[in-house]
Amino acid sequence: MPDDARRVRAAEPTDAPAIGLAHVRSWQAAYRGRVPQDYLDALDADRRGEGWRRYLEAGPPGGEALLVVDVDDRVVGFANVGPSRDDDAAGGGELRAIYLLPERWGLGDGRALLAAATRALHAHGFGHATLWVLDGNERARRFYEAAGWAPDGATKEDLSFGFPVAEVRYRRPLP
């Protein structure tokens, strides 16, 4: 895709509905068979978008950023970065979320968004960064590994969704 058709930029409150849609549709495609189907079916793009709108209107806290990738002026994905939330990764940054509309997977939008998110973490002064990925999400794991991320040995079982989700932590130094 020509570079002028794809753009990564800071998110604005008006992007929130598209962010919510990308968030929900990506979850529904990527996590099918990995999390309970009734949970995926109940995801609400409008509600998710409203949460992102409030986040953007309040202004991301220090060290955080919400980026979007748009193609032909249509938001197709987003990434959220900020300080690490892990005690053992203090002083580092964290890629907290990165999601694309499923029909945009494999077209370069994710690579552009991940590169911009990594630059944003570095610009906030972080020397390294982490992210958490579902243990069985091989597609995402290959994506991160191709961009220089590697498992660091940390694992956790996230119960915040009401069911257990096994996750693996990835880490990378920032340039």
TrEMBL record:
InterPro entries: Acyl_CoA_acyltransferase, Bact_Acetyltransf, GNAT_dom. Residues 6-175 form the N-acetyltransferase domain. Gene3D superfamilies: 3.40.630.30. It comes from the Bacteria. Keywords: Acyltransferase, Transferase. The keyword Transferase applies. PROSITE patterns: GNAT (PS51186). This is GNAT family N-acetyltransferase. It comes from Acidiferrimicrobium australe.
